[in-house]
Amino acid sequence: MSARIGIVTFPGSLDDRDAARAVYLGGAEPVALWHDDTQIHSVDGVWLPGGFSYGDALRCGAIARFSQVMDTVKAAAAQGMPVLGVCNGFQVLCESHLLPGALVRNAHLRYRNRPARLRVETARTAWTSAFAPEAEVVFPAKHGEGRYVADEATLDQLEASGRVVFRYLDNPNGSMRDIAGVANEAGNVVGLMPHPEHAVEALTGPSTDGLGIVASVLAHLSEGARR
Amino acid sequence: MSQYVAVDTVGVAEATPDEKQPWAELGLKEDEYQRIREILGRRPTQSELAMYSIMWSEHCSYKSSRVHLRQFNEKNPRTPRLLAGIGENAGVVAIDDNIAVTFKVESHNHPSYVEPKQGAATGVGGIIRDIIAMGARPIAVMDSLRFGAIDHPDTARVLPGVVDGIGHYGNCVGLPNIGGETYFDPCYQGNPLVNALSVGVLPRSRLQSMQASGTGNIVILLGAKTGRDGIGGVSVLASATFSESGEDDARPSVQVGDPFTEKLLIEVCLELFDAGLVVGVQDLGGAGLTCALSETAAAGDGGMHVDLELVPLRAKGMEPHDILASESQERMLLIVDPAKAEEVLARAHRWGLLATAIGTVTDSGRLVVDFHGQTVVDVPPKSLADEGPVYNRPIAEPNDLGLIAVDRAETLPRPTTAEEIRQTVLDMAASPNLCDKSWITEQYDSSVFGNTVLGTPHDAGVVRLDERTGVGIAISLDGNGRFARLDPYLGAQLALAEAYRNVAVTGATPIAVSDCLNFGSPEDPHVMWQFERAVTGIADGCQKLGIPVTGGNVSFYNQTGREAIHPTPVIGVLGVIDDVARRIPLGLGRTGDTIALLGTTHEELSGSEWASVKHGHLGGVPPKVDLDHEMKLADLLSRLAETEQLAAAHDLSQGGLAQALVEAISFSGMGAQILLPEGADPFTYLFSESSGRVLVVIPRGQELAVRTACESRGLPITPLGVADANTDGLHLRDHFDITRDEIDAAFKGRIGARLGE
Lengths: 227, 757
Known about the structure:
The complex is a heterodimer. By secondary structure, chain A is of the alpha/beta class. Chain A has helices at 16-25, 68-78, 88-95, 152-160, 211-226, and strands at residues 4-9, 29-34, 45-48, 83-86, 102-104, 112-120, 136-143, 147-149, 164-168, 179-183, 189-192. Among the domains of chain B are: 1-73 and 209-388, Phosphoribosyl-aminoimidazole Synthetase, Chain A, domain 2, CATH 3.90.650; 584-757, Phosphoribosyl-aminoimidazole Synthetase, Chain A, domain 2 (Alpha-Beta Complex), CATH 3.90.650.10.
């Protein structure tokens, strides 16, 4: 039986269907999760998709943090369940304190949509285990609030502990130290701004590198099962 | 509750027949006011007067354009594909036995000038709701934008705001922007054009109607609360000319958009349609509740009773006529079986969306609106929705036509030496209308939904509809105000031909048209002449091409003082492609592929980009249109796409062959070795804007097959050279070289730089 990856729909989520397609094309089973539900229906992993949850009210991701489903996701993450946040999902993970740092307005103050070249800085996370070390990938980056910021000590600690997961090769938003994605200490929770789910088919995306994200979590889950 | 005592009820109106009413201030003519009195057999109440003034405005009633728009229905080719046409919220065309597509283009010009960000944003929001109202899921947007001169100080106010508005709304509501156009011309300085298109897909069985039928059915208002925003938007902004002094502050008439609520509206409506819970549906846009109530009641078979105090408000002290006229965004009206009303409310609540029962369908034949138990409106709904005034406005050919026609751009001084022509290629590539528009398009999401196969800067947007079959659509949106100024009939057909060709260039087969007709004041007989000629051009063109006009929008009064914009019909053409994997992209293929030109280049420079950029000139006769040729071209391209015998293709339009090569080189990163045909004048060949031409890239080994396919259709094909990754930029043999860096330096980064960024 293939792994079940839950995809949360908040009011204002936009990439939930796209994440489901990526999960399906990557060989896992997508499961729809609802923001106002404590149940996560025995999924093996959770994907928080991009969009504008709750209309970006207050701050991006600030309201989603208090949703019913996030209580359950937080508890599951603490138990080691793989959790991925993409774009707005990354913002939700930072607001929920599952990941350090914050995502603020792009340095150039505009929403910008460009394919982003990224380096996979570590394969030691649940969502990057299938990538070669220092692999280069291309995912579309499209956001207005994607500039990663944290205090120097946090940044140093992230670097030292190998928790910078993705780094921009052409920094599109002024993110500190070119950081595009980070992980928690255990490596099961990962957030990134660029969109792997929009790089899963040669026909529609700049690459098919996004399938590596799903392959990674499948490898991670099957390894866990063997242990 | 003393404030309600002053309400002008039907009873009060009957008792005070001689009360002076502000009909002129609301934009009604005296005979129109008298007709309202005849219809009602008394003076209208304040609310009724507001409703008639809105519904009989130019924007809602099409009173000046209706007599001409009839041509579309008269000349439209009959096609079994057409499931809903003109008069519906948007035209619907069948793609196959199961799925259909609905699309429409609409203007939001005046609001975007007054308040660029919100004006443009709500333009996008409005067209999206038209698509929802047909039962479709919106799947993409496009925009056609026209601004004044790029270095005019006001353009730096209007353009970034408009782009921000379109981007913000489209990005937040989650629709990919798959293409469009941006042009600059001083004639749009006081009247920028913001035309937005949306397209949606639906199972044919989910097609919705706007009928309020079934006595006893419940009328539900879904979505945002009603506020004071946008009161009088259609009658004030869309149906009058801006004064030259610019003193009239119309800002309170512009609506404010909330794309988050719109996203919820989409999801809730589709859930309700799929569950079969809705009898009729209508969006609230221009004219708000007034329009939605009267149109649904008029389309139904009875009447309607509404209790207006039930409408959720976000402002205190709103009077009934305010509530009826408010253009607050993100609202829909639903007609629902009483047995299903509770489930409708529950499903809306699950998404956190407001839904309120405000009335019932009746068999009275009247639209009756009560406010706290007092009747403020009691009218026959058809008199509002369908029986507005119709004008046959005076038409007069402009006096300057003869003079313009002989002032031909073909007589202007031209570059002659190789170096002069080389520099002209670069200057043209750097000019505002031809330069790269990434500064704008990068502010739009293009990939959400994961079905965008081609977006900007390809000739048309291509979207996959079905992942299993690969069936998809292509859309292009095109206009050319300068050609239409020279000859509105030909200009409209050139825009139609270009949009048709842009769709064909991707390998899709054009099947339907939506148009947005932007003109000056209909009270000017010269403008009405332009309008009549343009409509006739489109109707004749569509008849010839065999594709129907399915809907669209007329925008009059695009003028400041006496100065009207160029007549600017903007044409959207929709095409179908059986397998999006076989689409033909922009580019240069691979090294060794043959570059060739389909079509014939004539000496046609009048109205061209070159005449405008280099001489500030507009005169002469626009290029010829040959629709037979366009049909053959489209047939050829769809066949070559099917057999995968083209590596790339690109329409030739503004800037001619030179610009097409610049774009293909810049986009692909490849080089091109070009040899012009013997005897060809290099300047004419590079910069003429003759229509019906396509640059094609033929993979090695397919040259003979493509040539044969052209010859069998009587289509001229001229080999021009080869694509070559090792050539740096453009090598024009016997003339000049331009490196890729030189091309990019001229072509890219211009918009931001000119706006001072």
